[in-house]
Amino acid sequence: xxxxxxxxxxxxxxxxxxxxxxxxxHTDRVLYSAIGVFVLLYFVYATIGGAAFIxxxxxxxxxxxxxxxxxxxxxxxxxxxxxxVGRVAISYDDLESTDPKTFxxxxxxxxxxxxxxxxxxxxxxxxxxxxxxxxxxxIDARLNEVHNQQLSKIDRTGVVxxxxxxxxxxxxxxxxxxxxxxxxxxxxxxxxxDARRLYQQAVDDSAGNGVTxxxxxxxxxxxxxxxxxxxxxxxxxASLDVQAGRLLDTQRSGRSARADEQxxxxxxxxxxxxxxxxxxxxxxxxxxRTAAMWHLVTSDFWGxxxxxxxxxxxxxxxxxxxxxxxxxxxxxxxxxxEARSARRREHEATLIHEREIQDARTYGxxxxxxxxxxxxxxxxxxxxxxxxxxxxxxxxxxxxxxPDEVRELTAHNGRHHRSLRAELLHGSESVGRHRRxxxxxxSEPDRAPTE
Length: 451
Description:
77% of the residues lie in helices and 0% in strands. The chain is an all-alpha fold. The radius of gyration is 62 Å and the shape is elongated. Among the domains are: 3-154 and 300-331, no CATH class; 158-283. It is built from twelve helices and no strands. It holds the Pfam family DUF4407. This is DUF4407 domain-containing protein.
């Protein structure tokens, strides 16, 4: 096969973190090439899912940095998948064995369980945002309904409800004041109507059309009594109007205070409702949309839930495809080739290490022998030198005649001021503590040479 074509075919193997030199069968090449394809597909899927997660978290404001976070998330998961796929559980026990059954360790359950947990975690962080984007219209409708319910509840139970109750109380107080004034004015109006009615009866009676059937309105008569009663009712009506006016004067300050308070509360309610509306509608992020999505799944399972679960399982399967193929292909030719090569290198390294240790021991023993021989030779040389010195001293003592003065001097207790050499050289000129001067040593008589 040409080198360029082989390099192109090895790209997918490199993506799957597989050593192309150990892929010797067509089956393994197809298997690990498929794993490389799944890794690339998952990189694209994780990039889009990570960007969708950031977009959903920002209430679909479409921030530009979402395309920076997506590749980072995808790179992290792909790195983990490549580490799992490229890992071969090689056994280094009994390196001299050639049985293929001893090449590999048993699979580590924790590694694959951790990858499954990571797949479920990323199914929430990556798959869920994609599903939220898929059902965005239905989720917006559900969120609108939820927000209206929340605003109604806030108006009833929150500070808006308290202010609304206070406004109702102020209106009741104003209505009570109006009722009191209205009662007086209504009574005054009723008395005026009665006065007009009595006066009309008096006019009719004075014309001869009344009860007495007599014309005129003599003093003390029935007509005159009607007129007086009419005037009395007018006076009472005027008195009630005065009372109503005085009541209004006394209520004016209270009415003004209530009107100001009511206007202030109305303004606060409007501001609070606007703030509540902004806050409630802002609650449309990832958590709120996930809750809305779950409501749609549970309330309309056959319309939404089936497709939601199906697509979610499909994306999770894509997430776990690479590791699943790796787990299913355990013990294939590729892993045995990698195990053989690694075990051979380990065996060679072990042998080299043993040889180095043996050489170090041999070198140490040789050095110890050399040092011991050197110490022994040095000890022998010291003994030879000591024997030679003793023999020379003996020969010197037998060959030299020492005068008595010297013997006495050497036998002295050592408390003289000048050295022994000075005593010997200067003789009588010495200022030491000797009582008599030292004489020069006699010359040694000529001796015949001895053989």
